[in-house]
Write a structure and sequence with these properties.
Length: about 260
């Protein structure tokens, strides 16, 4: 009974701590978002009238909503990237101490795959992210123009033409978002497949060289390493791609 109470208490306090950390994290992001949005909006208000008249109102609206959210996500993803990086380093130290050549080989294999994946998609994701921001400005402009010129649209029966133009830009934007989202999810699928394949191959090789008693400790260590390495490498690879996706919005906010 005492052991059960201790186990329950440990998990209770662990989850309580995680809940507090989650609350603190989101409250911090909320305060940062509030401060930045207030400063940007106030900057727009106090700008010289001539500058305001020359500025793109649709772009300003996008900055206050989309770009601001991307800048906050940039901070969030950077923290996740660093956290998972430290986790991977800790696992590598554990593998080195355990002198597991198979575990270290798995680590190196996953690291190489993650590196090449990021290098392969980073340009594609960054380019798509910039195009999405430009398309969002066009969409906001179309909405503004449609609201301002609704009378003329009705008089000249331009509803279908306006709708087709809006739908074209909206579809292009969402299509690029979907492609980026698929890219973000690919690392987990690829790394899981490679990790399990390497585990099976290691088991087959060891079965020809060692006895069952010698295989079990090695496979246990390798299995634990793979179980923890795959989520970490998946997270760090996916997060690296996401940082590329939100970097354009962050760069715009940081220049204001």
């Amino acid at each position: 009974i005492l052991f059960s109470i201790i186990v329950i208490s440990i998990f209770f306090f662990k989850n309580l701590f995680l809940l507090f950390a989650l609350y603190f994290e989101n409250i911090t992001y909320l305060k940062i978002k509030k401060d930045i949005s207030s400063k940007i909006f106030y900057k727009f208000l106090i700008e010289d009238l001539i500058i305001q008249m020359k500025s793109n109102s649709a772009e300003n609206i996008r900055i206050l909503f989309q770009d601001l959210s991307q800048s906050i996500e940039y901070f969030r993803h950077t923290i996740i990237y660093l956290r998972e990086g430290l986790t991977i380093i800790a696992i590598l130290c554990f593998l080195i101490i355990g002198s597991s050549i198979y575990g270290i080989s798995t680590f190196v294999l996953l690291a190489i795959i993650s590196y090449f994946f990021l290098n392969l998609v980073k340009s594609r994701v960054s380019r798509a992210a910039k195009q999405i921001l430009d398309l969002q400005v066009k969409i906001i402009q179309k909405i503004q123009n449609a609201i301002k010129g609704i009378k003329e649209i009705k008089i000249f029966s331009l509803e279908n033409k306006i709708f087709e133009n809006f739908q074209k830009d909206f579809y292009s934007t969402e299509k690029k978002k979907v492609i980026n989202d698929i890219i973000f999810r690919l690392p987990k699928i690829i790394l899981e497949l490679l990790g399990i394949t390497f585990l099976v191959i290691s088991l087959l090789i060891l079965s020809f060289k060692l006895d069952l008693k010698e295989i079990i400790p090695i496979m246990t260590l390798l299995g634990v390493a793979i179980v923890r390495l795959i989520p970490s490498f998946s997270a760090i690879t996916s997060t690296g791609a996401k940082i590329r996706a939100v970097a354009p919005g962050f760069n715009i906010i940081s220049k204001l």
